[in-house]
Amino acid sequence: MHLLKPLYLFPLIVLALVLGVAGGWVRIGYLGMMVPGTAANHGILMVGGFLGTLISLERAMVMKNRIWLLIPLLSGLSIPALLLVPGWPAFGHGLLLAASLGLMVIMYLQSVRHPVIYQYVMTMGAALWMAGNFVLLYSGFVPAAVPWWMGFILFTIVGERLELSKFLPTPKSAKNGLIVLLALFFIGIWIPFHRYGNWLMGTVAIMISFWLLHFDMAKIASKKADQFKYIGIGLRVGYVWLTLHGIALCFFEPHALYYDLYIHTFFLGFTFSMIWAHAPIILPMVLNIRQNPYHPILWIGWAVFQLSLLGRIVFSLIGLPEWRTFFGMLNGWTILGMFVLMAVITVIKIIFSQRELGTVKRFK
């Protein structure tokens, strides 16, 4: 187990992201990076390979025993399993199911150790990921698993926000109201999707976004400076995307690109806004380093990401496929570019810190 380190697992997360983006490009009509199998497995690579492995690694880092790092390893290994064994997709799907079961065990143990509401919410998120992966393994139909995966991400993020905002004087009635909303979202997943489930999930998503905009500590952080402002504004913009996701669910079902609209307002607009905002906090913990990847230059990449995604959504709505493809391509490159930029910032900070440490030792 000494050979199992978080840094060794991170390349699997990066691989899932790159291949997932490449598959998304093919699906939207941009053929600049064609990798066999990525288009068909685009959603699985992004949700299971990338997000599932990242979240599992984050939660496994809290555990004392390194054996729990096997959970994100299972999730990460689903990536080569899906692409290198294309004739047997159940193998990759099974690895994701095993990883989600492992994450459920981790969250259960953490909730036993700390029996508080945000732990229960995140545990429920892990259970929803498991349910979605079971649906995928049983049916082989990705759209059937998507609502469960959305629940996984939503419950995980809401749980983390409740944890980070636990010292705010939030009224008990407001917290209870949020739990009711999450319960209604769960019910919406169970209801046949193209009848009332989309209306219930969409309405609840809008109400949860309003709750987060009003009660989450991002409201306070956005008024501060530097990194706090970057995190606060990033989170609040993500909550606005959650509102747009709810609107898409409720009112755009007749649109030809309805599936694309409600999927990407959530997984790109909401989820990636959360990733950009949480990166200065999460990545140092996951990689076990002191330096964080924040620098004011990230604002540029963040703005290009938001504007390119908005362009993709707008041109999808008005029916201009060439522009939709262009902005989708730009959005994908921006996602990859943001991670490269954060990596460069981190490396530069590490180099400068080592030089400063060497200078201090010489003076001593």
Explained architecture:
The protein folds into two domains: 1-164, no CATH class; 173-364, no CATH class. The protein contains 13 helices and no strands. It has helices at 6-28, 42-60, 70-84, 89-113, 117-139, 142-164, 172-190, 193-215, 218-221, 226-251, 258-287, 298-318, 321-363. Helix 2 (42-60) packs parallel to helix 6 and helix 12 (298-318) packs antiparallel against helix 13. The longest helix is centred in the C-terminal third of the chain and has 43 residues, at 321-363.
Reconstruct the topology from this structure.
Blueprint: H1 6-28, H2 42-60, H3 70-84, H4 89-113, H5 117-139, H6 142-164, H7 172-190, H8 193-215, H9 218-221, H10 226-251, H11 258-287, H12 298-318, H13 321-363
Question: Which structural traits does this protein have?
Answer:
globular, single chain, 13 helices, mainly alpha
Q: What's the SSE pattern? A: HHHHHHHHHHHHH
Find the count of extended strands (DSSP E, 2+ residues). Answer: 0
* Number of discrete domains: 2
| Global structural class | mainly alpha
Low-confidence stretches: none
Rg of Cα set: 20 Å
Summarize the structure in short.
The chain is mostly helical and 364 residues long.
